[in-house]
Amino acid sequence: MNDDNTFRRCLAKFATGVTVMTCSDEDGAPCGMTANSFSSVSLEPPLVLWNIAKVSNSLEAYMDAAHFAINVLAADQQELATHFAMSDHTLFDDVEHTLSADGAPVLADTVAVYTVAVFECRTHEIHDCGDHYIIIGEVTDFRSEDLEPLLFFDGGYRGILG
Ligand SMILES: Cc1cc2nc3c(=O)[nH]c(=O)nc-3n(C[C@H](O)[C@H](O)[C@H](O)COP(=O)(O)O)c2cc1C
Predict the structure, then answer these.
(1) What is the domain partition of the chain in residue ranges?
(2) Which residues line ligand 1 (CB under 6 A)?
(3) Residues 110 and 92 sit within 8 Å (Cβ to Cβ)
């Protein structure tokens, strides 16, 4: 059997988009974390999922949040991806955002931030799975822009053309 690093390197060969998952914690403070485990699940009802590491400092906020948003980053938003991959609870201090009708922070519809897509979700189910939890959201609202996406492949950020 290969070791953990070989497994990680093999998984990294699957190219993905890059999202920032956002929610409000129990005090109403905005939380955001970069995630590429997003996947669509069901059209009817509209369900999507992502995975959160059990060791994440933001775990409690996402486990308790009744609503969250999935912000799909554009090719020119690598800085936001790096920013929201840091472990820090003041990450939103310098990032423009609005609040969805359900109170989840959204990185769009502001002067400076244009994401490729936003999915606003109601937390539908959470499954305990190995060293992660799978969070399934029912999409309550969504929108998209005709922009190039940011990609993640082989441990690095990429554009569609390389
Ligand atoms: C491209 C990329 C994708 C990531 N995807 C995930 C993910 O799907 N789930 C997750 O729990 N962490 C993921 N991470 C790591 C988190 O962004 C990062 O560990 C976290 O924000 C650090 O803060 P925390 O320890 O306070 O949670 C990803 C990081 C990067 C750079």
Answers:
(1) 16-155
(2) 18, 33-37, 50-53, 56-58, 85, 87, 152
(3) no
Q: 122, 66 in Cβ contact below 8 A?
A: yes
The yes/no answer on whether domain 16-155 falls in CATH 2.30.110.10 is yes
Among 70, 24, 75, 28, which Cα is nearest to 47's? 70
Instruction: Tell me how crowded residue 98 is: count the other CB atoms within 10 A of its CB.
Output: 13
Render pLDDT for 70-79 as a digit per residue (tens, 0 to 9): 999 999 999 9
Residue with tokens 């936001």: 80
What is the whole-number distance in angstroms between the Cα of residue 161 and the centre of ligand 1?
A: 24
Q: Whose CA is closest to atom 7 on ligand 1?
A: 35
How does DSSP classify residue 150?
Answer: P
Residue position matching structure tokens 């053309």: 161
Composition of the chain by helix, strand, coil, percent to 5: 15, 45, 45
Pair of tokens at residue 31: 């939380």
Per residue in 115-127, pLDDT (tens digit) is 999 999 999 999 9
> Ligand 1 mean position to 34 CA, how many Å?
5
| This model's pTM is above 0.90 | yes
